[in-house]
């Protein structure tokens, strides 16, 4: 027998606050893929044209958002896995082996349904869906690590850290020799893989699913080895975000060092993108030296963001009324899906096609507006005690009628 979903009195402010702000970071980082009318460069991420304001927005996003929000999302997802698992076991005075297996089965069921949600999301709106991606990742992690002891987790963390740092060997060699170029071919611009410029919805859906299959399937094996997932397991067992006041020194150091490393690692790619430094084109390609540097340093940056949200939650813990952003964090799945619902039909060529006429600055403004709509809607739902529709459906599928 398993217990039902989390109750309101069991929620902690820090994870919800982080999820709410994280949705803004994610929707901002996804904006470039909807600018299908702009000219994209070797990486296929941001346009290489636009006004000075557009270029400034691109610079800031490369330094602070790109490849930095997904490690944050991954951490929170893995952290929530441990919370769910331990809440299930807390229902028993002395959990048996059968109880632990049932808790793992519940996690497995949740991961499988996330994959289904991700498939539908990609088919309808967004090729870069991350629900299926993390559904596969948590399915594997739930089987491999959720019941292991801390010693096993530290060993796994060591292995994951080595795998994470392995690409830095080529980066260090390239900077040491001064040869930032390479002989590999450019990757296809990501905006084409997202099918935002396709006028036929059916063809666009098929292309989105093709991209989603690669990202959610093959791409998962690259992400399950990322250290932030194992760190999230350890942090959740020590209840770092539930009790940030007990871990202030850890949170402060993590926030300062993580964000500093992350922003410094994204700076060369941002400078190259706006033309402030001259580098070979393939240095900024998806597998180029500067892109790899930005991706690797995105992990400590994501952890730094988590720590910063923990510190912010500690400062706000005395408030009786929670911020509206935390209400969105409680409904993060719904908020994430609503972003695509408001983005794709308005911006894609098969919809109203507004993405052809916007630049990076206009798209960023549109993204903030969409996020604010979800914040207001979540706050209204919170005042009425209503869950997000996607959360309600997922809980019904995972827990049944309880």
TrEMBL record:
InterPro entries: Bact_Transport_Assoc, DUF418. Pfam families: DUF418. Keywords: Membrane, Transmembrane, Transmembrane helix. It comes from the Bacteria. The chain crosses the membrane at residues 20-37, 57-82, 103-124, 130-146, 153-175, 212-234, 255-277, 289-312, 333-352, 358-381. Residues 235-400 form the DUF418 domain. PANTHER family: INNER MEMBRANE PROTEIN. This is DUF418 domain-containing protein.
């Amino acid at each position: 027998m398993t217990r039902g979903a989390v109750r309101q009195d069991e929620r902690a402010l820090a994870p919800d606050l982080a999820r709410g702000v994280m949705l803004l970071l994610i929707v901002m980082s996804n904006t470039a893929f909807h600018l299908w009318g702009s000219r994209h460069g070797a990486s296929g991420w941001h346009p290489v044209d636009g006004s000075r304001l557009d270029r400034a927005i691109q610079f800031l996003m490369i330094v602070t958002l790109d490849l930095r929000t997904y490690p944050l999302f991954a951490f929170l997802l893995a952290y929530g896995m441990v919370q769910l698992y331990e809440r299930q076991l807390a229902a028993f005075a002395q959990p048996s082996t059968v109880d632990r297996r049932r808790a793992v089965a519940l996690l497995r069921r949740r991961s499988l349904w996330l994959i289904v949600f991700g498939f539908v999301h990609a088919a309808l709106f967004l090729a870069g869906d991350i629900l299926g991606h993390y559904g596969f990742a948590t399915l594997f992690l739930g089987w491999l690590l959720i019941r292991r002891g801390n010693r096993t987790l530290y060993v796994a963390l060591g292995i994951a850290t080595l795998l994470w740092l392995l690409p830095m060997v080529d980066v260090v060699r390239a900077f040491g020799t001064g040869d930032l170029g390479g002989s590999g071919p450019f990757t296809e611009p990501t905006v084409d893989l997202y099918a935002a410029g396709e006028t036929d919805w059916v063809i666009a859906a098929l292309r989105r699913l093709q991209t989603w299959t690669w990202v959610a399937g093959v791409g998962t094996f690259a992400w399950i080895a990322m250290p932030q997932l194992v760190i999230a397991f350890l942090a959740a067992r020590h209840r770092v975000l539930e009790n940030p006041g007990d871990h202030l020194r850890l949170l402060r150091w993590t926030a300062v060092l993580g964000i500093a490393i992350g922003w410094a690692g994204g700076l060369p790619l941002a400078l190259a993108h706006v033309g402030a430094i001259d580098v070979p084109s393939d240095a900024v390609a998806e597998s180029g030296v500067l892109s790899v540097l930005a991706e690797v340093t995105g992990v400590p940056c994501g952890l730094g963001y988590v720590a910063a949200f923990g510190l912010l939650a500690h400062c706000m813990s005395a408030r009786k009324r929670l911020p509206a952003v935390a209400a969105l964090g409680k409904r993060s799945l719904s908020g994430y899906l609503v972003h695509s619902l408001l983005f794709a039909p308005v911006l894609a060529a098969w919809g109203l096609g507004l993405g052809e006429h916007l630049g990076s600055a206009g798209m960023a403004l549109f993204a903030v507006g969409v996020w604010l709509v979800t914040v207001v809607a979540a706050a209204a739902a919170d005042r009425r005690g209503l869950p997000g529709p996607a959360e309600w459906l997922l809980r019904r599928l995972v827990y049944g009628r309880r």
